[in-house]
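To the wet lab folks,

You asked to see what we're planning to order before we commit. Fair enough. Below is the target structure as tokens, and below that is the sequence we designed to fit it. If anything looks off to you, flag it before the synthesis order goes out.
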């Protein structure tokens, strides 16, 4: 049932009026009121105003900007294990999250505030904590308290490649990840503003 159907029906019942009485009072066809209440017609704003006005109420329209953007806590499952048994991030989901924050930096603090559920991968939990710390540092907001509860890896995680490639990746890793022994170059996750 639509919001309009519920709104009209509840307001009419609170006023103690029948469908016909409301239709006459609002100067709206009875079948229109019937169809609105039975979710067979999506009324115009003008019709809703007439109906509610006849019931001594006002229709207020507004716009909300409280829509919540993506949350780091929703990414705890963005990884898998490859054939060699190594934990591998879902790069696409991680980049999409960071791309969104790149376009909407004002959402950064809120996006990393909540602690992700334990992922089942110590590596991935560290990666998410490092991302939260970098996002916070980049936006000039305090780091979320939950990141302090994630101890760094005991053994360094580095991607595949030759020793030279891994050394280059280590040198390009942001300090927030490097201190967690997660060696992923900044450019692998964060796109440069163009």
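Sequence we intend to order:
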């Amino acid at each position: 049932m639509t919001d309009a159907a519920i709104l009209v029906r509840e307001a009419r019942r609170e006023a103690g009026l029948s469908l016909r009485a409301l239709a006459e009072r609002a100067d709206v066809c009875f079948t229109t009121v019937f169809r609105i209440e039975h979710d067979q017609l999506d009324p115009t704003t003008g019709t809703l105003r007439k109906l509610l006005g006849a019931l001594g109420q006002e229709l207020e329209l507004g716009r909300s900007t409280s829509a919540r953007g993506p949350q780091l806590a929703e990414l705890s499952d963005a990884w898998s294990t490859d054939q060699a048994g190594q934990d591998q991030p879902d790069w696409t989901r991680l980049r999409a999250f960071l791309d969104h924050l790149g376009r909407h930096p004002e959402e950064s603090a809120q996006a990393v505030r909540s602690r992700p559920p334990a992922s089942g991968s110590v590596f991935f939990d560290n990666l998410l904590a490092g991302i939260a710390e970098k996002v916070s540092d980049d936006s000039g907001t305090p780091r979320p308290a939950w990141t302090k509860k994630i101890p760094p890896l005991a053994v360094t995680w580095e991607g595949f490649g030759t020793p030279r490639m891994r050394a280059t990746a280590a040198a390009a890793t942001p300090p927030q990840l490097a201190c967690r022994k997660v060696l992923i170059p900044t450019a692998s996750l964060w796109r440069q503003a163009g």
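Structural context that might help your review: The mean pLDDT is 90. Residues 72-189 form one domain.

Thanks,
Computational group
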